[in-house]
Amino acid sequence: MKVQLTLYAKNLPNVAGVFKGTSDPYAVVQKLGEGQTPVNVGKTEVVKNSLDPKWTKRFVIDHDLGRPTHLSIAVYDKITKGEDKPMGSAMFNVGNILGAKGNIKATRMKGGGIMYAKVQKYEEGGTLRLQLKAVKLQSTEGLGFGVLSKSDPFYELHRQTVDKKGWDVVYRSQPVKNNLNPIWSEADIDISTLCRNELNTPIKVKVWDWEKDGKHVDMGEFETSVSGLVAAKNFSSTMDINRADLASAFTLTKIGSRRDRGQIVVLRADLVGVDGAKPELTKPTKPREAPEPAAAPTTAPAPVAPSAPAYDPPPAAPPAYVPPPSAPAAFVPPAADEPPPFVPPPSAYNPSYAAAPAADAPPPFVPQNPVTIEPSSSPYAPFVPPPPQPTFVDYVSGGCELNLAVAVDFSASNGDPRKLGTLHYFNRGGVEKNDYEKAIAAVGGVLAEYDSDKKFPMWGFGAKFGGQIRHCFQCGRETEVDGIDGLLFSYRQMFKTGLAMSEPTVINDVIKTAAYRAKSALGTAQMKGSQAYTILLILTDGQLSDVNDAAKAIYEVTDTPLSIVIVGLGGGDFSGMRYLDKLKRDDRGIVKFVPFNDHMHNMQSLSAATLDEIPDQLVGYFLAHDIKPNPPVQQHDDDIAIDDIDSGMDYAFGGGGYDGGDIVL
Questions:
Q1: Total domain count for the chain?
Q2: Which residue from 57, 59, 18 is spatially nearest to 40, judged by alpha carbons?
Q3: Composition bias, kind Low complexity: at what positions (predicted)?
Q4: What pLDDT does 354 receive?
């Protein structure tokens, strides 16, 4: 998927030198590949005389959920004659930014200052080719009369924030020196960046008088839309050439003043790469008299999403078994139609596959009503393409949380963890992780970025406590553990509880428990105006006692906000796991199986392979239930936590065959 990166900084060090004014910073962005080889992404424009630059340049970055994308940001002071001076540097992880509130992160820079990075959705939307001309601007020089010198005007384009409470600058032209009737150069502006591909959404055009010290002077502004710019250009071209300039011009004004500050003429406003973009114009009944400016086109009011239906929470979920107390009542969710039976391959691996009885289907989820978008009322509006389908980034930007749950196979087929070469074997030196720990750290580490509280439930299956087999028991003393290090610690501690690694290997209960939590989490989130989606990570050697029973459990929970990732450890027969991977109901599949050994030497490859289907599964579930993404969360600078330099953690913990019988530890 493609995302859009923007940068700004605060409190940069001034490296210009004594008596040389203030630095002129620009930023260089590099992307670090898997081998940490930097790849140039691009650089921002230079902001003159500023230690708090807000760059308008937007960078388009390719990012996959399971593959960490690291960015190196270096800031330099532009030196006209000589070598540019470094001002500071910072590192960001795109997944970490996406998972943060408001999709924005801040970190202290090596060298001084604070760097802010914001990641937003990007989608192809064509280009606006724009050229503007100003007429009779009011000078801000020479007592306002421009007697000794005239202003050096430039303009900015601002788009409205999603909450409609502010504006973000997205484009800045070059100044035209000493001219009150400037004609600015043509500019190609990405429509997705300018207006999120919504041609009728408000934009602001603001004109400034450029000053060397960076304290530019306001010369006026006006509001319109991309449709308004296109209509103004097209209408002026239909008028008499002697009146065309001002017939559809926009009038500049300043806040708190009704006095005209000049006019802006649209010389060119062409939509390039937008299907059906040619506007259908309606001729006005009366020609407008010059120099009366045309009113900016009216934009359609923003649709108001209906309130979510009242959520009737289900009865409390039965808790997972906490050793050594007795087990809670088994969780029994409603069943559904049966999946096709699994046909095992002809081999020595051929356990019994018994079918589970069918039951009534679960009640359907009650979705929100779809939003109705009113058509534009502008008589000059060009054709507006239908809105694109929501994406994973839309849901995450709107505050949807990914809740991680982890289930670990403690069955005897994994081998005695005290023996070298078995799957649960611990390196006594505490240096190297075993394969279970590597998978938890790699896959869980990526998903943890999208969970705000970093607390995860961890369950086990396939072990006995007090002589009784448990197919879903709690790992650790708390229902949720803290972060990835908490998962790893709880996993290791289970081997000190007196459990007996046993058989059969059954994953049904952890699947049903995860599905119950997923549906409850979404319901609770919706009552708070938010959204939630759950991912169950199952780590197993793949030797399930009854694949058809597991398939039946998966079939029953397919219509819940849940994805299941199964990582197969060891070199066993994974044909049953591959069958579960292909299982679908109503064209929706929720299982992704990946053999650990295929990626054992590249943990980034493992996380990428296991998580690549989750974005589509999440979007598919929400769209099927008419749940639209919430508007992007807005975050004020004062509310953004600032990371320290190199604050990232390395979750480093140290780190066969089965011939039957329990393994008692």
A1: 3
A2: 59
A3: 292-302
A4: 35
- pLDDT tens, position by position, 484-509: 999 999 999 998 888 899 999 999 99
Is-contact 327 316, C-beta < 8 A? Answer: no
Q: What number of other Cβ atoms are within 10 A of residue 45's Cβ?
A: 14
Q: What is the mean pLDDT of residues 250-268?
A: 85
Q: Is 527 found in the same domain as 464?
A: yes
Question: How far is Cα 249 from Cα 294, in angstroms, rounded to an integer?
Answer: 6
Beta strands 591-595 and 500-501 are: unpaired
Task: List, in order, residues 6 or more apart from 14 with CB less than 8 Å away.
Answer: 22, 23, 51
Percent above pLDDT 70 for the chain: 76
Shared domain for 560 and 539, answered yes or no, is yes
Domain end call among 75, 105, 122: 122
481/596 same-domain check? yes
My answer on whether 154 and 114 are in the same domain is: no
CA end-to-end distance (rounded Å), the chain = 46
Same domain, 624 and 486: yes
Average pLDDT over residues 78-95: 89
Of 96, 122, 148, the residue at which a domain comes to its end is 122
Written as six digits, the tokens of 591 are: 């299982």
Q: What is the CATH number of the domain that holds 599?
A: 3.40.50.410
Of residues 356, 357, 320, the one with CA closest to residue 516: 320
Q: Is the pTM of this model over 0.85?
A: no
Question: What's the order of all strands across the beta sheet hosting 153-160?
Answer: 167-172, 153-160, 203-209, 217-224
Strands (E), 322-427: 401-409
φ/ψ of residue 319, rounded to 5: -70, 155
pLDDT at 617: 94
Residue 459: domain span = 392-633
- For residues 448, 95, 124 and 620, what is the CA-based torsion angle, rounded to 10 degrees? -10
